[in-house]
Amino acid sequence: MSCCDLAAAGQLGKTGIMASDCEPALNQAEGRNPTLERYLGALREAKNDSEQFAALLLVTKAVKAGDIDAKTRRRIFDAVGFTFPNRLLTTKEAPDGCPDHVLRALGVALLACFCSDPELAAHPQVLNKIPILGTFLTARGDPDDAARRSMIDDTYQCLTAVAGTPRGPRHLIAGGTVSALCQAYLGHGYGFDQALALLVGLLAAAETQCWKEAEPDLLAVLRGLSEDFQKAEDASKFELCQLLPLFLPPTTVPSECLRDLQAGLARILGSKLSSWQRNPALKLAARLAHACGSTWIPAGSSGSKFLALLVNLACVEVRLALEETGSEVKEDVVTACYALMELGIQECTRCEQSLLKEPQKVQLVSIMKEAIGAVIHYLQQGSCGYRWGRRSRRSPLCLLRCGSWVPGWPEETSSLRKEVCQLLPFLVRYAKTLYEEAEEANDLSQQVATLAISPTTPGPTWPGDALRLLLPGWCHLTVEDGPREILIKEGAPSLLCKYFLQQWELTSPGHDTSVLPDSVEIGLQTCCHIFLNLVVTAPGLIKRDACFTSLMNTLMTSLPALVQQQGRLLLAANVATLGLLMARLLSTSPALQGTPASRGFFAAAILFLSQSHVARATPGSDQAVLALSPDYEGIWADLQELWFLGMQAFTGCVPLLPWLAPAALRSRWPQELLQLLGSVSPTSVKPEMVAAYQGVLVELARANRLCREAMRLQAGEETASHYRMAALEQCLSEP
Predict the structure, then answer these.
(1) What is the mean pLDDT of residues 445-451?
(2) What single string gives the DSSP state of each residue in 458-506?
(3) What secondary structure does DSSP assign to 161-225, as a single string?
(4) Alpha-carbon dihedral angle through residues 477, 481, 482, 485, given to the nearest 10 degrees
(5) Which helix (H) or strand (E) holds 322?
(6) What is the predicted pLDDT for the residue at 471?
(7) Angle at 80 between CA 79 and CA 85, to 5 degrees
């Protein structure tokens, strides 16, 4: 077959079967087209490629563009199958006189036609072409070649169709499509705008997996978009405001991107704008505040003025949104403004290295008090049953962030704390109602979607998780007697236990944890902090409420696997410490009497406590020093309080659980601890570390004769003398 015949066959896409004209049309009459039937028969009976090409041309003549329905399209596929397109896509030799991509172009056109059927778009024979399709987007060639352009369009149509299937985004990401799209966009060749649109869709559908598979390429796109944003002088800068939040990485944002983004936002927000122009900029600023705190704002006069401007605009927007009679709350914008107000609060309460000077702090606190007054007034109306109809009943949930602010404010705002406490009964009942409704509807699994600072997908993004918003505020309030009593009276601890157990189930084996947003784990950690506050301040509640027994059982069964998981040490520390403190209060429970679960939990807790420090050699010295383990070193600032509390709690458990000391001895923790202390310089061990180690060793020695003997064999008395552990030295000197 000649090159002209191939080109004619490629016109299938322009006459009714291929890419752009394969969309479903009005249903045809039940009667079949006899001419089409005859040509389909010829296509099925074709014995070689030339006959298949000829039959495809005949089929093309038998159908008109737009006259093909889903059933006819499927019958054409049944006649062609995947074998022929597969050969076209993989062949490396074209007929004489034809460009080398002509066969591949025809193969992609056929594939694009098939992909217009959602069932075929999810077919394994389409999915296994994803890597090949990616190469077509980045292949070099004549940019003015019409056939090549048509092939690129068809390739994007295939990929877009796959992305629209339930598991399509995962297959595309696994097939390297994200990197290919990034390269296609950065190359600014034909179709690069389609590459960006598809990237946006994939990031919105599976952000975590996209960054995991193609972080360097996505960062390159972010750099390009940030630079364009900083330079833009036309309306494109407002469009970029909407795109950029999707491309902010879950890890560190490159400093050059932060500079460009801040400069672009400063120009936009410093101008007189309409709300549709200003709101995307506020949402982008809020996402940056959420990801980077205030580090993206430069120090000095320009930075402080910019921050003051941000907070002022946010406060004005909040008041306008909440005080306009009869208007719906613009949840995404208002929630973004809350994030910016939180940023202002953090800077106002920062004593060192604050971006703001004292007069600016005083002014901003006054402005934010007025905005929070509007929030509280709005919530008070809801608690009394006003303004919130069924249609807008979810609007106040974006307001609940205020519960985490007030406890950290300066003393002159203590009146706001009182008003927030008055709202607590309503907030607990409201959150409980939504939680129970979701539970009854069996859609709790849908609540794992993060309640984003600024939604990354258009339209409503409410995931139903009001409790996640309330956790930070409740963590503060459970420290104080008055608010804590209100929360307990309204049943908040029981609700939090249920919530914790449900969220924990999402992270258990059998669930795909890679799709969970970071906010799920952060929420679990905050729950642990609340429970820790209750253990310390309301121990009677832990003993009498059955929900804490269920919580203890979950902690015991979960910790052994958790301590082995890479990157989850902080959550493991929370679980271990909470479990150890609760074990002291629930020591008479049958579940803690040496059961397999309890033994597994304490073994895992010992692993967490014992692996925090190692002996590290120092240049020019014969004696090592005590140093943090690599896994602990980077997060020790967040971990150390939990570690010390865990050591203290373990010490308290030893006399209450007779089986624990022998179990610790079998783990060799006391022997290895003495060995570690004996191998490092005593001057390298801080006094608080000495006290923590001595507490554990003394209780183990007192509780069990074999422990004392093992410690003596490990030079325990000598080590105790070196470190001035008088209690341990005396205990080991006794029979």
Answers:
(1) 41
(2) SS----S-HHHHHHHHHHHHTTSHHHHHHHHHTTHHHHHHHHHHHHHHH
(3) HHHTSTTHHHHHHHTTHHHHHHHHHHHT-TTHHHHHHHHHHHHHHHHHHHHHHHHHHHHHHHHHH
(4) 90
(5) helix 301-323
(6) 87
(7) 170
Q: Are 698 and 731 in contact, with CB atoms under 8 Å apart?
A: yes
SS3 content of the chain, % helix, strand, coil (to 5): 70, 0, 25
Residue corresponding to tokens 């301590």: 563
Separation between Cα atoms, residue 304 and residue 261, nearest integer Å: 16
Helices 236-243 and 192-231 sit at what angle, rounded to 10 degrees?
110
| pLDDT greater at residue 281 or residue 85 | 281
Q: What pLDDT, on the 0 to 100 scale, is given for residue 476?
A: 83
CB 605 within 8 A of CB 645: no
Of the candidates 281, 330, 335, which has an alpha carbon nearest to the alpha carbon of residue 310? 281
For 496, residues 6+ apart whose C-beta sits below 8 A from its C-beta are 467, 474, 527, 530, 531
Q: At 472, list the tokens.
A: 């930070």
Chain centroid, CA 328 distance in Å: 28
Q: For residue 547, what are the contacts with CB-CB under 8 A and spacing of at least 6? A: 493, 494, 497, 498
Report field, pTM of the whole predicted structure over 0.90: no
Sign of the CA dihedral running 187, 188, 194, 200: positive
Say yes or no to pLDDT of 721 above 80: yes
Q: Which residues on adjacent β-strands are paired with residue 626?
A: 615
CA distance 661 to 703: 6
pLDDT digits (tens, 9 = 90+) for 651-661: 999 999 999 99
- Structure token digits, residue 208: 């975590």
Token code pair at residue 71:
């059933």
The CB-side HSE value for 714 (13 A sphere, CA atoms) comes to 25
Say what the pLDDT of residue 92 is: 67
Q: Which of 734, 678, 726 is nearest to 709 (CA)?
A: 734
Residues 6+ apart with CB under 8 A from 735: none
**Residue indicated by tokens 């890419």:** 19
Q: Are 95 and 2 in contact (CB under 8 A)?
A: yes
What average pLDDT does the structure give for the chain? 82
Q: What is the pLDDT of residues 533-577, one digit of tens each?
A: 999 999 999 999 999 999 999 999 999 999 999 889 999 999 999
- Comparing 310-319, 511-520, 528-537, the range with the smallest average pLDDT is 511-520
- Please compute, for residue 355, the number of CA atoms within 13 A of its CA located in the half-sphere on the CB side: 24
Closest CA to 202 of 180, 171, 169: 169
Q: How many Cβ atoms sit within 10 Å of the Cβ of residue 417?
A: 19
Q: At what angle do helices 255-269 and 275-292 cross, to 10 degrees?
A: 150
